[in-house]
Specification:
Elements lengths: L2 H11 L2 H23 L6 H20 L2 H4 L1 H5 L11 H18 L11 H18 L13 E2 L5 E2 L2 H22 L6 H16 L9 E2 L2 E2 H38 L1
Antiparallel strand pairs: 1-2, 3-4
Helix pairs in contact: 2-7, 3-6, 6-10, 7-8, 7-9, 8-9, 9-10
Length: 256
């Protein structure tokens, strides 16, 4: 079999119902967590739900768009799936920009990013378990003992399970920071930077199902974009928080 026939065999051997179940569970559990964390926002209820809706719609659209530009095997599947094959990378970025545009249109400067950190990470982790069940996002052939046969008779790297495990660990870290209010207004972007780097590295273990530019895979470029956005936001927000602290100290000294 050629490459595309092999990939098709792998996808056909997976369980789409289990994948859909995992996606529904991830959206339900993660959505509840986002809703709970958003209750800390000092914003009217209608505004809160508008922002959450913007994130949801932006993420759903963003998940579908990249496939139309991916090329390779992914590009050949765009007509076989509702709104094309999905990628969480596009969903994260478009969800973020959708919220930014809505908040700008509503003239809201209040920071809402932290509320999406835990829930978003948990959605991603559970969703990857669905990828394992459906046999999508499969890894390259390996002789390792951890190799898994995804239906084509070849032992492959279980990239989906590896990514899910690392995302659950990242969720634990974000939960720890949330409980102690560490890295205020930056936790979502810690997720961006961490997942961007993680995904860039894991793509070397994943089968090449999309085109490459300058020797780097299509999804690796998006992962690098996510990494850059995350680092930039962390730096900018850290600087703002420091300036606020310095201003408070200066004001205290003048008052004294």
């Amino acid at each position: 079999m050629d490459g595309y026939e092999t990939y098709h065999t792998i996808l056909q051997s997976g369980s789409r119902p289990l994948y859909q179940l995992a996606v529904l569970v991830s959206m339900f559990v993660g959505g509840i967590l986002v809703r709970r964390d958003s209750q800390a926002w000092l914003l009217p209820l209608s505004v809160r739900y508008t922002i959450i809706a913007a994130a949801a719609v932006g993420s759903l659209v963003g998940c579908a768009i990249p496939a139309f530009f991916a090329g390779g095997y992914v590009g050949s599947l765009t007509s076989d799936y509702l709104l094309s094959p999905k990628t969480i990378l596009g969903g994260i970025l478009c969800g973020f920009f959708a919220v930014a545009l809505v908040k700008r249109a509503m003239r809201i400067s209040y920071d809402t990013s932290d509320a999406f950190a835990r829930g978003g990470c948990l959605m991603m982790a559970i969703g990857r378990l669905g990828c394992m069940a459906q046999h999508c996002c499969f890894g390259k052939p390996t002789d390792s003992l951890v190799g898994v046969n995804f239906g084509d008779g070849v032992s492959r790297v279980p990239v989906q399970a590896i990514e899910a495990s690392l995302l659950f660990l990242l969720f634990a870290g974000l939960h720890f920071c949330h409980q102690r209010d560490y890295f205020q207004n930056r936790r979502l972007f810690i997720l961006f930077a961490s997942y961007g780097l993680l995904r860039y590295c894991l793509e070397f273990l994943r089968e090449d199902v999309a085109s490459q530019w300058l020797g780097i895979g299509f999804y690796q470029w998006i992962a690098l974009g996510l990494l850059v956005v995350g680092i930039y936001q962390i730096v900018v927000r850290t600087k703002k928080l420091r300036n606020r602290v310095d201003l408070r100290l200066s004001t205290s000294e003048v008052s004294a």
